[in-house]
Structures are given as C-alpha cells and as structure tokens.
Amino acid sequence: MDTNLRVREAMKAAVRRRGLTHAQLASRLGIKQPSVTQLLNGTYGKIPQSLLEALDVLGLEIAVVESPNADDAETAQAKAEAMSLLSANPWGKKPMGLDTPVKVKGPAIEELLHDHRGPDL
Asked: Which residues contact 17 (CB under 8 A, 6 or more apart)?
C-alpha cells in the first residue's frame, strides 16, 4: 500500500475512533468540510513524490501512530472551541452586541490562554 494511502487510512480510522464528522474535523482545522473530504480521499494534501523517493533512498518510511499526548474527543473539542474564540477575539473581549460571555464546554482554558497569549495576559 502506498504511503499516501496508508496515511489517509490512518486518519480516517482516527476520525471514526473519535466519533467525528467531517464537519467537526473541518471546524477544528479551520477549513471547510469539503476540504476535509478531499484531504481524506486524497484529492489534495498528498505527500510529494520527491519526498517519498528520498525516504526510500535513505531507507526510511513514514509511520502514523497514535500520539501518547492525544486528547480525548471532549477535551479536543473544548480546545478547538477555545482556540476559535481566541482567534475571533484575540484579546478575550466579548463581541459587540453580545450580552453574555461565550462559554466553552470542557476543561478550563487557562493553560491555552497561557500558551497562546502569554502568562501576563
């Protein structure tokens, strides 16, 4: 099986294990749902052939494994929602016309705030 296909199959399996839809994955990646479908089906996002050939010459191959630091689905969704809020409102201000602050489900986002804004913000 070619490397691009192995990578796509591993990604599809991870999507199934996490119970994600293409729309949910797209939201987390900040892209549109059709782009996720194209990525997983191999329409685009392929590893360049020249890189694959260089790996072959060097006796290397790409392996896709579950990260030991992978978040569970609920934590990953909470982080994605927090990052979406941070990108839309980089200083944490509520948007004009919004009467109540936006709530993010899941664990506290202090760690994300620290990592992406710095300790003093």
From this structure: none
Alpha carbon 76 to its chain's center:
8
Query: Counting Cβ atoms within 10 Å, is residue 64 exposed (0-12), middle (13-18) or buried (19+)?
Result: middle
Helix H or strand E encompassing 121: none
Tokens 């790996």 -> residue: 55
- Interval 49-92: pLDDT, tens: 898 889 889 998 888 888 777 777 677 667 766 666 665 555 55
How far is the C-alpha of 69 from the C-alpha of 49, rounded, in Å? 30
> 10 Å Cβ neighbour count for 32?
13
Q: Which of 80, 69, 8, 57 is nearest to 37 (CA)?
A: 8
- Residue ranges and CATH numbers for the domains of the chain are 1-69 (1.10.260.40), 71-121 (no CATH)
